């Protein structure tokens, strides 16, 4: 039996009185690309942020390749190095150059040598197509370039899986494509990915499975052809009608 | 005869100008300039103050300021981190410390350290009374700068911390490699302000009594005023203070502009 990359068991999350996740159960298999869609406030970002414990689950269990990250004694920092994360706002470190953005965690966390970390940095920056910006500061880059550097920064840690939290939502429309292209390539290379997104075309083409969330529960999940083109639940249908009308 | 609002305005402004001109004229005509010159701008006294006013007094003022700023910064950083800690007692201690030493006049803290503590505990800070005063000023500066540093840390967007943590950096590593370098950039202007205040606060040292070699500017000037019965030393140290503080603020403004470009 293969251990899933991510296994979420009966996850609940409260913000004060408000229950934003009402018992989520699901798995992401190794090499699988799962897109999570749903209206804003449905809890999809919170779910993603619980996976690497940026958000503290109220109850429930999350296993990363079989290791319990929700265990109070878990070495969360260690586990996080296996989980890359890409944010809506990029969150590059503005006081560091592109190169240092990509090498700092390699050196400080993985204890790689200066030389090795630079080699890895050049490799991943080339992979996302921004090697020529290696000596620039983030402020000098376009949004699309910044997001690609952010992806490279995660890839440099050799993660086993990547979490994407609305990676194109802060981008100008003409810059979305270059980021989605990088993600598509990653998926083709077999990376395990969990993607919160509003890009229905991307989900349709790249996802192995689409999960529709609303009101803190998983309403429906399945292959994109089923969930996106032939949804069973009325809520999914209503949501898709609204998104596709735009 | 009714006046429009504009006419009224013009009239009142004209009267003010007239008043100002009258005061200046009165000062020029009626002031005893010969005496003012003798008391405040006595060249003989100025010459006698050199070179000690620079090589001893100004130097000491600078040394005390830099030491207090350095120690104060370390204290402030520790306090700011405690203030932001999730551990309740740390937070309580930091708040208590900050409120106490910001609430007390700096002079009280200085006297307490220079006289009170040695008498009470038979304990001497290295450097004697001046050493004690430096420690006292550091303690006070720490309280003030702690809030500045806390503000700087909180001004760094939360996403920075999340990105660092998601890369596997520990809380401390995140603070020192990602958050603080950005926070310090934000804090340069307010911290310089603290430095300028601190340079001026070393003037409080004159109450704790120092030897001819450990005098700072104010004590030096007061000693001169007493022996010469003349106020020129005040003029001289005022100029020295300005020579120190004005370039400092100018330098920092330039630094700010340069780092501002990198952001």
Order of helices and strands of chain B: HHHHHHHHHHH
Number of strands of chain B: 0
Sheet with the most strands, sense and barrel status of chain B: none
The greatest interface between two protein chains, and residues involved on each side, is: A-B, 27 and 20 residues
> In percent, how much strand structure appears in the residues of chain A?
15-25%
Q: What integer is the average pLDDT of chain B?
A: 87
**Topology, number of strands of chain A:** 10
Question: Within the largest sheet of chain A, what's the order of strands?
Answer: 6-7-8-3-9-10
What characteristics describe this protein?
heterodimer, A: 246 residues, alpha/beta, 6-stranded mixed sheet, 9 helices, 10 strands, 24% strand, B: 263 residues, mainly alpha, 0% strand
Ordered list of secondary-structure elements with their pairings:
The complex is a heterodimer of chains A (246) and B (263).
Chain A: E1 6-15, E2 18-28, E3 33-37, H1 44-51, E4 59-64, E5 67-68, H2 76-80, E6 83-86, H3 98-108, H4 114-127, H5 143-155, E7 161-165, H6 173-188, E8 192-196, H7 200-206, E9 209-214, E10 217-222, H8 224-229, H9 234-245
Parallel strand pairs in A: 3-8, 3-9, 6-7, 7-8
Antiparallel strand pairs in A: 1-2, 1-4, 4-5, 9-10
Helix pairs in contact in A: 3-4, 3-5, 4-5, 5-6
Chain B: H1 5-30, H2 33-40, H3 43-49, H4 52-83, H5 88-103, H6 106-121, H7 128-155, H8 158-166, H9 171-201, H10 217-228, H11 232-262
Describe it.
Chain A is built from 9 helices and 10 strands. By secondary structure, chain A is α/β, with parallel strands linked by helices. The radius of gyration of chain A is 18 Å and the shape is globular. The model of chain A has no long low-confidence stretch (mean pLDDT 93). By secondary structure, chain B is an all-alpha fold. In chain B, 82% of the residues lie in helices and 0% in strands. Chain B contains 11 helices and no strands. In chain B, α4 runs antiparallel to α9, α4 packs antiparallel against α10 (217-228) and α7 packs across α9. Chains A and B meet through α2, β6, α3 and α5 of A and α8 and α9 of B.
């Amino acid at each position: 039996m293969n251990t899933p990359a991510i296994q979420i068991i009966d996850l609940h999350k409260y913000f004060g009185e408000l229950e934003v996740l009402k018992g989520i159960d699901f798995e992401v298999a190794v090499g699988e690309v799962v897109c999570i869609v749903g209206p804003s406030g449905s809890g999809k970002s919170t779910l993603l942020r619980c996976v690497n414990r940026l958000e503290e689950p109220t109850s429930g269990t999350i296993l990363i390749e079989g290791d319990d990250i929700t265990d109070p004694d878990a070495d969360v920092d260690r586990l996080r190095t296996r989980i890359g994360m890409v944010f809506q706002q990029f969150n590059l470190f503005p006081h560091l150059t592109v190169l240092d953005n990509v090498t700092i965690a390699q050196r400080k966390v993985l204890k790689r040598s200066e030389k090795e970390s630079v080699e890895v940095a050049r490799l991943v920056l080339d992979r996302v197509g921004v090697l020529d910006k290696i000596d620039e500061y983030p402020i000098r880059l376009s949004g699309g370039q910044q997001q690609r550097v952010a992806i490279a920064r995660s890839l440099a840690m050799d993660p086993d899986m990547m979490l994407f939290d609305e990676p194109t939502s802060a981008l100008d429309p003409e810059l979305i494509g270059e980021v989605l292209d990088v993600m598509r390539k990653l998926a083709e290379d077999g990376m395990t990915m969990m993607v919160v997104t509003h890009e229905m075309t991307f989900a349709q083409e790249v996802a192995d499975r689409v999960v529709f969330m609303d009101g803190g529960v998983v309403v429906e999940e399945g292959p994109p052809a089923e969930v996106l083109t032939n949804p069973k639940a009325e809520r999914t249908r209503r949501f898709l009608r609204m998104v596709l009308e735009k | 005869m009714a006046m429009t609002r504009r006419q009224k305005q013009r009239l009142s402004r004209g009267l003010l100008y007239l008043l100002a001109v009258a005061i200046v004229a009165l000062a020029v005509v009626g002031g005893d300039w010969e005496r003012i010159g003798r008391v405040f701008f006595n060249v003989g006294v100025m010459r006698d103050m050199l070179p000690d006013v620079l090589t001893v007094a100004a130097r000491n003022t600078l040394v005390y300021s830099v030491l207090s700023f350095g120690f104060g910064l370390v204290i402030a950083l520790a306090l700011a981190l405690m203030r932001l800690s999730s551990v309740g007692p740390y937070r309580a201690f930091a708040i208590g410390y900050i409120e106490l030493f910001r609430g007390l006049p700096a002079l009280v803290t200085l006297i307490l350290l220079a006289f009170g503590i040695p008498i009470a505990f038979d304990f001497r800070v290295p450097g004697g009374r001046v050493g004690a005063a430096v420690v006292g000023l550091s303690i006070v500066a720490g309280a003030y700068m702690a809030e500045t540093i806390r503000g700087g840390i909180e001004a760094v967007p939360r996403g920075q911390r999340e990105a660092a943590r998601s890369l596997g950096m520990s809380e401390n590593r995140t603070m020192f490699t990602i958050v603080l370098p950005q926070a310090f950039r934000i804090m340069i202007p307010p911290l310089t302000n603290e430095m300028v205040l601190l340079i001026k606060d070393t003037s409080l040292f004159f109450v704790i009594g120092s030897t001819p070699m450990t005098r700072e500017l104010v004590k030096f000037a007061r000693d001169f005023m007493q022996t010469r019965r003349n106020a020129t030393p005040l003029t001289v140290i005022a100029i020295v203070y300005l020579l120190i503080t004005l370039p400092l603020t100018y330098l920092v403004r330039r630094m700010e502009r340069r780092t501002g470009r990198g952001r």
